[in-house]
Amino acid sequence: MAEHNESAAYPVGLRLAGRRVVVLGGGQVAQRRLPALIAAGADVLLISPSATPSVEAMADAGEVRWERRRYADGDLDGAWYALISTDDPDANRTASAEAEARRVWAVRSDDAEAATAWTPATGRSEGVTVAVLTGRDPRRSAAVRDAIVEGLRDGSLTAPHFRTHPAAGDAAGPAVGHVALVGGGPGDPDLITVRGRRLLAGADVVIADRLGPRDLLDELPPHVEVIDAAKIPYGRAMAQEAINNALIEHAQAGKAVVRLKGGDPYVFGRGMEEAQALAEHGIPCTVVPGISSTISVPGAAGIPVTHRGVAHEFTVVSGHVAPDDERSLVDWEAVARLRGTLVLLMSVENIGAIAETLVRHGRAAGTPVAVVQEGTTAAQRRVDATLATVGERVKAEGIRPPAVIVVGDVVTVGTGSTGTGTGTGTGR
To answer: Is the confidence at residue 17, as pLDDT, over 80?
Structure first.
């Protein structure tokens, strides 16, 4: 992008791997520019009597060669590119003249008009490098760059891939499908990760759970196929095997598939079962961690799962089967002996039995309990109780999944609901 034709720059990407680059000056400009030169694989020679601690650390690590002296004529011999950024204007002018004479492209930090090259405002996102030049307005360059990179990262600016990755030795290669297991977070669409949102924006097929951030589905283009894999508690369910088969089928057809889950794929999300099924069929799979409801939902309700002087640990337990069920893998007696915070997921149906079991094995009946239904969403609400009363409170308040139940003294040190809930109740 160039605004001034009389000084328009011709944009080009320099491939500097293994090629000599000379940097004059070890100050803030070098500190900002050196990491990109190092990442490009350049053979960097730094010439400066002093350097910032960060630049010195790069030299100590062997990432650049540092000669502790001032610039001298001939330093640019054999260079492909030069960064002139000393605090001596005369040295900068002399070095710039040498670069011109030796036909070395050179950037000058003190006088852009006297330079033979300009450094664009650059940013990177998923293999894409964005470089922006606006001539004499570097701040605008940075602003345009930030807008483009942010759009690529959050999915609001999308561009499909037109080349697939062929197999080694195969110049063309067949279309290769891919599956991303994306943790969508606790429900608020703003709490999905940047990477998750970007993958969702580029999907051909989305297989979504009920607990995923449903509002994001409205943003998908019309061509995207959305498959409802909702596991509605105690109701209709799409068998896990059917979900696995759908993932495999669409990926084998060369599609970009996103499996959109609530919370995190590996926290009671059967993500590993799906990853294993894909691996058995040789299908590439990316796992994108999500913000787990175990921490985020209590936080949205004003409850810290740990707090200095109150709780030094928190334990996450699934209560989808009752404590006396032979299928339960939880050592409830050991859990009851813990002094920290207990976070219960999928426990609404069995909370009465769980509370009785915890009390029977030693947890105080007056232990505070908070039940947060549909946390982080517009329907969030919090009901407070104790282990002695929570079973009846949940029934009386008509609590339904999804809900996160927090047991422990941290319930009483919180600030109250800070999310978008509609109300609270007390049972102590």
So the answer is: yes
